[in-house]
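Morning F.,

Quick status update on the modeling queue. The single chain you submitted on Monday has been processed. Sequence for confirmation:
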Amino acid sequence: MPVKFATQSQTSKYNVSNAVAPARIEGITPTKHLEQNLADYIYGKKSIAQLVKETKQRRAVNQIR
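Structure tokens below.
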């Protein structure tokens, strides 16, 4: 019987679900921006490193204000 392996997007989707679940249990709803970023990660458009870099850049800009 052949062994089925998860695709990269399936693995990413599973990881995102596990990361977001505790927040949802606490009643915290992700922003549209976060949902879009996570979808980009799931479908391979962005890496975690890119998302972290963008987040740090946004925080730096917001701290200046």
